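Subject: sequence -> structure tokens, single chain

Hey, anyone have a minute? Need the predicted structure for the following. Not urgent.
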Amino acid sequence: MKKKPIVSTIIVLFIGALLFNGCSKNENNTEESKVIPVEVTTVTTHSIDRTLEFTGTIEAWKKTNLGAQMPGTIKKIYVNAGDEVKKGDLLIQMDDAQLTQARVQYELAKLDYERMKPLLKEGSISPNQFDKIKGGYESAKAGYELTLKNTQIRAPFSGLITTKWMNEGDVFTLMPGAAGSPTILTLMQFNPVKILINIPESDISSISMGQKAMVRVDVIPNQVFQGEITRIDPAIDPMTRTFGAEIKVDNPQQILRPGMFSRVSIFVGRENIVAVPREALIRQLGTSHYYAFVVQNGIAKRRNVKLGQRFDELFEIKSGLNVGEAIVIEGQYLLKDGMKVNVTSPTEMKQ
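Reply:
Had a minute. Here:
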């Protein structure tokens, strides 16, 4: 009496499985028989200007923190932040007490030296005696010149005073300050400026000294600055696997300032590439990979593609597509690999 419900259940499950398989087959047959209308274009080659793109930060061509090599009181500062100066201009006058002492020692040593030169010629003193006097004179002279240099601090190059760290009357010491090193003024040269970039080892063969570069700055839109590669490091950085390089950019109006973010484009040649329109490419969800569909004998074939650079509405194809193939540009989101398609209006991609 208890076996009948079990047999009935088995029969019901068997009939259900048959019905499900029948439905699935019908659905698969419907899917396979469906013909999707698509538009295609032909995969072709295009002549393009190949460029390498880099980012970098603008830096002053020259920068120095000005201070003395000996402690002392700041007697006079002749400039303020924002002042332009010429090479050799007197910027800072330190207390000259040490300078006076050094000058007296130098002048006395010079008198002795001048007085002994004729005596050496007469033979009144030995060469050894004269060499000692000459050595004392040269030592006093060097001491005086060093003290003078550290008492009257002049601009080592033309540029702009960017920061004034100390004031008149302050005591300058050799202890590091806010600028890092002991500093009274910071001087920078803004014309030209330089941009430091890192070149991957795969691109280094395309870069050479003197090569031209186009520089764009986000905060100065619609303006392109011309630059030139002036330095390429001879050795690769083992941490980043890149070569450091320096780009010199003329800046006569001093529009470009240190710290600005820049984008650098370097033209490396003209070449023919395989490229397709952006609308032909489909991105796999959750990844950075792309694929496309080509049509072969009325059947859609999925192709994984590797992309290169973008040129306006064209994307370079590194691998995955061949010249002459018909690639779907309309209706591709309805396709699966192996589906039948009907090409409704084939077009030739503009070259």
